Amino acid sequence: MTTIETDYLIIGGGAVGMAFADTIIAETDALVTIVDRQAKPGGHWNDAYGFVALHQPSAFYGVNSLPLGENRKDTHGANAGLYELASGAEVSGYYDKVMRQRLLPSGQVTYLPMSEYRGDGRVVSVMSGAETQVTVRRKTVDAAYNSPTIPANHTPRFTVGEGVQLVPPGELLRLWRKPERPSRFVVLGAGKTAMDAVGWLLAMGTPPDAIQWVKPRESWLINRNCTQPGVEFFDAVFGGQLAQMQAFAEGTSPDDVFARLEAAGMMLRIDPDVTPTMFHYATISAGEVEQLRRVTNVVRKGRVKAITAAAIELDEGSEPAAADALYIDCTASAVEVRPPVPIFQSDRIVPQLVRVPQPCFSAALIAFVEAHYPDDATKNALCRTVPFPHDLTSYCTTNSVNLMNQGAWFGDDRLGTWIRQSRLDGFGKIAASVDRSDSARVAVLQQMRQMGPLAVQNLMRLASAAA
């Protein structure tokens, strides 16, 4: 058995573990050991379907020390005119580069891939069975606590009859292996994976009438135009954020908050005639929405219970099955419901979201707080766990905590300075670049700050009233 000593033992080499490690070695002289089951860093990106891409600009993703992408705008497709969205392959390659060019050369990082953590500092190689005993001098970091479920390793929660062709979305890229083209493509699910699958089918030339979309519910979607990192998007970004603060401060119900956000251009929906009941921070362009609306064969009868050669059985009835249909399972939830817990727990750190929907920024900020603040009570006060919303009501709670965290950060000079300098916090740089003589833009920023307390108060009232 090999024995090693380390200051921080990080369980998981995905986006969260990498962002934490990158910041902790930048802010301290600590030694770090990263244990991961994958052969390469990047976590679930190594198993993602081939046409996956980030929903938000690349500028907001990755680790603090190394940019992702080239800070360019797309010139064609549904994202034309907006900043680039890294593909899954680009993200995987990026994390390999971070490990090889940043973390390992620092001399502070030990990397144990293809290894499982068995508890009590015990690490076992998946390949050889060899054991490594790690003595942790400071803390164990559970970077896998909020690991997503992805289509490639998802088990459907419905039964599949004999002869039914059900595949994860990644298999769509291998359709050329099939001797015959399916008579119909049936996309199961309403989340961003399903939207990606429908968009890919259309982009590959599939006729819209050959696609059936089975949606258990509709989702509100963030307009990507309001999440851009460039200063030229100030009016869209901060005008949208001001409208958001006003909606938070003045909304009379969760539904009313979303209606106000839609009226302000912050939120989009695919079907203008169906009011969404869910929100998972999926981000999309108006061009993508326009494409998705081309599919009109949409089934809204609840969740799938069973699929047979004759019918799709759903919560609220059934739907005839097409002969030789290919079913694409997009029902895996990337955001499993896990109870929020304190992030700093004595000799353990459990990274979670402290700003939604930014896991990389959250992990980096948690590492900075760990490096510079004295005790768990102080650290947890700066890093309240932000619960991920699963319906419109919980969106109110999410944003009340988001805003309370933001207020605490910028009330602390050291942390506020770090945030403004952080690559992962693009909006702060845009705000800081505003010319003080530009009275209109200065007024927008002032109004946002002034509305913060009113927004928190009203959001908490709305969440309490709906509970």
Describe, in short, the structure shown.
The protein contains twelve helices and 20 strands.
Can you describe this structure?
There is one protein chain. The chain is an alpha/beta fold and 467 residues long. 34% of the residues lie in helices and 18% in strands. The strands form four sheets. Strands 1, 2, 3, 4, 5, 6, 19 and 20 form an eight-stranded mixed sheet that branches. Strands 8-18-9-10-14 form a five-stranded parallel sheet, covered by helices on one side. Strands 7-15-16-17 form a four-stranded mixed sheet, with no helix packed on it. Helix 1 packs parallel to helix 7 and helix 4 (234-250) runs antiparallel to helix 5. The protein is globular and about 65 Å long. The relative contact order is 0.14.
